[in-house]
Amino acid sequence: MKMLIRLVISVLGSSFVGVGVGMCVTTGLGADALGVLWEGLAKHLPVTVGQASLLVTATCLTMVFFINKKELGLATVLNPIATSIFTDIVIKEVPGPSSFGIKLLMVLIGISLIGIGSGIAAATNTGKEGYIALSFVLSQRLAMDLAKIRMMLDAFCFIVGMLLGGKFMLGPILGVVMIGPLLKGASRYCGHKMLPLL
User: Fold this and answer.
1) Which entry of 23, 66, 142, 183 is 20 to 30 Å from 102 by CA?
2) Rounded CA separation 13/183 (Å)
3) Mean pLDDT of the 93-106 span
4) What average pLDDT does range 90-117 have in this prediction?
5) What pTM was estimated for this model as a whole?
6) CA 98 to CA 103: how far, in whole Å?
7) What is the sign, positive or negative, of the torsion defined by CA atoms of 139, 145, 150, 156?
8) According to the 3-state scheme, what is the secondary structure of 104-148?
9) pLDDT of 10-50, one tens digit each?
10) Measured distance CA(56)–CA(41) in Å, rounded
């Protein structure tokens, strides 16, 4: 029963991520740095943006498997599905705002949901989505702060994506700065609160 509760919480966290990504996309200002990388890869490889995302996820999962496969689990599969479903729902149902001020507010809320939702999902220890798992294993292996590792990974993805021809947008820049600290904070807070469930 405890495992089921933890899985539900993990999927809920990933659903927040999906809502956040959807909100960012509807503004036209972009979401996180991974999106820029996917777009850049799609311009140079015979793949769509969606296929590029799967390629990046597979690469992250392979690295995690060889570094510390304990970070993988059932939620590694379930969470991306939840994220995808809620991203599509928000993009379909929420109209894009015309005011730049509202767009900026939506991006800030969206990026916050991505970071906090990722932290909630990670705190359950039911398996992490590929990119999040990579952030955690590199933090452990290199003995570096999780927030800094995530910021460095996001910056790397953003720069490589830009060099490959991805669009320069505000959302990914805010994501580089905000997601890492929010992921770390939410993961620690929720991990402490969920100790009775673990």
Assistant:
1) 183
2) 11
3) 93
4) 94
5) 0.91
6) 7
7) negative
8) HHHHHHHHHHHHHHHHHHHHCCCCCCHHHHHHHHHHHHHCCCHHH
9) 999 999 999 999 999 899 998 889 889 988 998 899 988 77
10) 9
